[in-house]
Specification:
- The complex is a heterodimer of chains A (282) and B (421).
- Chain A is an all-alpha fold and 282 residues long.
- Chain A has a domain at 61-177 and 205-281: MetI-like (MetI-like fold), CATH 1.10.3720.10.
- In chain A, 75% of the residues lie in helices and 1% in strands.
- The longest helix of chain A has 35 residues, at 58-92.
- Chain A starts with a helix and ends in a 7-residue tail after the last helix.
- Chain B is an alpha/beta fold and 421 residues long.
- Chain B has 2 domains: 2-170 and 301-352, 3-Layer(aba) Sandwich (D-Maltodextrin-Binding Protein, domain 2); 173-297 and 390-420, D-Maltodextrin-Binding Protein, domain 2 (3-Layer(aba) Sandwich).
- Chain B is 35% helix and 18% strand.
- Chain B contains 16 helices and 18 strands.
- In chain B, strands 1, 2, 3, 4, 6, 8, 14, 15 and 18 form a 9-stranded mixed sheet that branches. In chain B, strands 11-10-12-9-13 form a 5-stranded mixed sheet, sandwiched between helices. Chain B has a two-stranded antiparallel ribbon with strand order 5-7.
- The chains are: A mainly alpha (282), B alpha/beta (421).
- Chain A binds chain B through residues 38-41, 53, 57, 59, 62-63, 66, 122-123, 126-129, 146, 149-150, 228, 231-236, 240-241, 244-250, and chain B through 72-73, 75-76, 79-80, 97-98, 100-101, 197, 200, 203, 205, 246, 251-256, 263-264, 267-269, 404, 408-409, 412-413, 416-417, 419-421.
Chain lengths: 282, 421
């Protein structure tokens, strides 16, 4: 009986914090998503206008499509780069000191604001930016490349730059826990390096890959500022729809979009978790 | 408290308010009490200047806290957080949106010393008796209410003002004359395929739609009944034209903040775009040629003013009136006019400007000496004239005012779709 009580008391602080700062706000958002709004005020109601607009508008569908597109492309690229970097750090660098030193090196750029890291691409990629000037002086191109900036390319480049570390860290972490005798065993059994990679390392790294994937997918799907700055406001994702609505005082509509986005992201994560049980690894 | 009320009434009754505020009064009797007052003002970056707060402390003795936000956030805050401010520095179209919430209180014009000297645009709507009133949310149309608690706007001067006008200007397109080596005369040039991938428009729906309308009307594609209050069909037609241009790659980017517009222009990403006057100044002060191009169809104009929070009362309210009287008494006007804006009471500002500055900024005369901004940047050399000419030339050629339409919600949805298209 008392043990039971103590258990409850121990869980209570976290439960209260989560209730107050996670569950309650989400419930509030869900409630407001059914409200109505005028230009300058919102009024309580129970109507489906916000949702019916969302699902009926072809623009909204296209924007959700663009959001998935960004998430998919960024995922592939960050996974490729992140896995390679983590692999190098975990298996090629032999001394622990160097591993830690190089790992810290990866994190140094993250001591600055991510807005700064993102915006610093703009003068680099611009029409008269460093990239174009260099390419022209090398004679590779005659005219500046317009698609370098304010395009899907620049948006994805910034995403990859900002979020690759979120892939490196969990993958590196799981790789470090792989017992090296397993690799030796594979080698003794006559596996090539590639076979070891595919049949031993990748299966054992899956939880790390999955955690990195969840980070990257949720960050990209929830982003609005990167898309706004790097596309020069010319592209949209769901986050921008929400931020535009908020700017124009259309809170119920923003809440409805947020609810749909939340459900979508939860669905994606739900599907991902069917593949790998990350709890076993934590 | 009682002492102070006596002193203010005495000043007003004595009929010396005009003289008093011009001479920067701060009556000595209540100097001690007023020092403890803090007024919280928020508004767009254009007029929320720290120099003003410093000068207020110096001249009036109380503290003014400034918060600068973008237009959307300003609207949002005025409408949803009435307790967070004492003075709202907002545009007239924002006033139209926010006034019905009851978060602001009307001002008694008999307490405004320079009321009679305020430019006609803000009172009768006419710059000169012969002027025609431009389309859109003209300031005088949302400038007055029937009485202290009035919620609907009055059609003429009533003695109860919603906003005390402070600053306004006529906006047009900014261009890079070094990169466009031919004359630009019409709004249609924004969509000229010649500038494909080198044009920009601002991503603030209520202002952007007016620029779009100026372009569509100039192209002869759409005849608007009233650009400031479009029908749904007119809105659809306008966006159709711009969506097509966007898909064809006409625009390099859209900008939302002042700095973005400066960077787009200065870096050469864009050669023609919607722009604000001080942004032109900022580009020029980097040594890059930039012109605020007068266009034959006229200007898109805007005006801002100070509104009082409904929560203000007692001594704080008196301090707010004191502040407004000081605002119109010339120092701020001179400061703003030296940045290229206009003051609501130009004649008081004149006292705070040199003859050269007054001639250049207001009368459109060639500068007789170097023109510098209040912060010391060189803006023009001797012999240069202001783009667009004199006050009457510029403010007399206003085609429409920034506006909020009856179909605003529809327009906003369409705007969102345009951005996502």
């Amino acid at each position: 009986m008392t043990r039971n009580l103590i258990g409850w008391l121990q869980a209570a602080p976290l439960a209260l914090v989560l209730m107050g700062f996670l569950v309650a706000p989400i419930i509030m958002i869900v409630i407001v998503s059914f409200w109505g709004s005028t230009e300058y005020s919102i009024y309580p109601a129970f109507q489906f206008d916000n949702y019916s607009y969302l699902f009926a508008s072809s623009v909204v569908w296209r924007v959700f499509g663009a959001t998935f597109k960004y998430a998919a492309i960024v995922w592939v690229l960050t996974l490729g780069i992140g896995f390679t970097v983590a692999y190098f750090l975990a298996f090629h660098v032999r001394s622990l000191t160097w591993q830690i030193a190089l790992f810290l090196l990866c994190t140094i750029p993250f001591w600055t604001s991510n807005i700064i890291r993102m915006i610093s691409w703009i003068p680099f990629l611009g029409r008269n930016g460093i990239a174009n000037q260099t390419l022209i002086s090398w004679g590779v191109i005659d005219e500046p490349l317009e698609w370098l900036l304010y395009s899907d390319f620049s948006v994805i480049l910034a995403f990859v730059h900002l979020y690759t570390l979120f892939m490196v860290v969990p993958i590196f972490n799981t790789m470090m826990r792989i017992d090296h005798s397993l690799l030796e065993a594979a080698r003794d059994a006559g596996a090539t390096g590639f076979q070891t990679l595919v049949n031993v390392i990748i299966p054992l790294t899956k939880p790390g890959i999955m955690i990195g994937t969840i980070f990257v997918v949720t960050l990209v799907m929830g982003d609005f500022i990167t898309v706004r700055f790097m596309s020069g406001s010319q592209r949209a994702n769901v986050g921008r729809l929400i931020s535009n609505d908020i700017g124009l005082l259309q809170y119920p509509s923003a809440a409805a979009t947020a609810v749909v986005l939340l459900c979508t992201v939860l669905l994606v994560i739900g599907i991902l978790l069917r593949f790998v049980n990350i709890r076993k690894e934590l | 408290m009682s002492k102070m009320r006596y002193s203010r009434r005495a000043i007003l009754k004595g009929g010396v308010a005009a003289a008093a505020s011009a001479a920067l009064p701060a009556p000595m009797i209540w100097a001690q009490e007023i020092k403890d007052i803090t007024l919280r003002q928020f508004g767009t970056g254009v007029s929320n200047l720290n120099d003003v707060a410093t000068k207020v402390k110096e001249d009036l003795g109380f503290t003014l806290e400034m918060t600068a936000l973008d237009s959307d956030s300003v609207t949002q805050r005025a409408a949803t957080q009435p307790d967070s401010f004492d003075i709202a520095d907002i545009e007239y179209w924002i006033c139209k949106k926010v006034w019905p919430t009851g978060n602001l209180q009307a001002m008694d014009t008999s307490k405004i010393a320079n009321y009679d000297k305020i430019v006609g645009i803000f009172r009768s709507g006419k710059l000169t008796p012969e002027s025609t009133i431009a389309q859109g949310t003209a300031p005088h149309s949302v400038g007055f209410v029937e009485g202290p608690g009035g919620t609907s706007f009055a059609s003429e001067e009533t003695g109860w003002m919603t906003l005390i006008p402070t600053i306004y200007n006529a906006d047009t397109l900014g261009i890079r004359p070094d990169l466009i080596v031919r004359p630009i005369e019409s709004w249609t040039e924004l969509l000229n395929p010649e500038f494909k991938g080198k044009a920009s428009i601002l991503d603030i729906s209520s202002i952007g739609i007016m620029d779009m309308a100026m372009v569509c009307e100039a192209m002869g594609e759409i005849q608007y009944g009233d650009k400031g209050n479009m029908t749904m069909e007119e809105i659809d037609a306008t966006f159709a034209i711009f969506t097509e241009a966007k898909r064809a790659g006409q625009f390099r980017a859209f900008w939302k903040t002042f700095d973005e517009s400066v960077n787009l222009m200065a870096s050469g990403e864009v050669v023609i775009q919607s722009m604000w006057s001080p942004a032109i100044t900022a580009v020029k002060s980097r040594g890059i040629p930039c012109v605020y191009q007068p266009l034959k169809e006229g200007y898109r104009s805007w005006g801002g003013g100070l509104g009082l929070s409904a929560n203000l009362s007692g001594m704080a309210l008196d301090a707010a009136y004191e502040y407004i009287n000081w605002y119109l008494s010339g120092w701020v006007g001179g400061y703003l006019m030296r940045q290229g804006y206009y003051s609501a009471v130009p004649e008081t500002s004149k006292n705070f400007m040199s003859e050269n500055e007054w001639g250049y900024w207001f009368e459109g005369k060639p500068a007789t000496d170097v023109i510098t901004s209040p912060t010391g940047d060189v803006l023009a050399q001797a012999g240069e004239t202001r783009d667009g000419g004199s006050f009457e030339d510029r403010m007399g050629a206003v085609a429409c005012w920034n506006a909020v339409m009856d179909e605003n919600q529809y327009m906003v949805r369409k705007w969102n779709e345009f951005i996502a298209a």
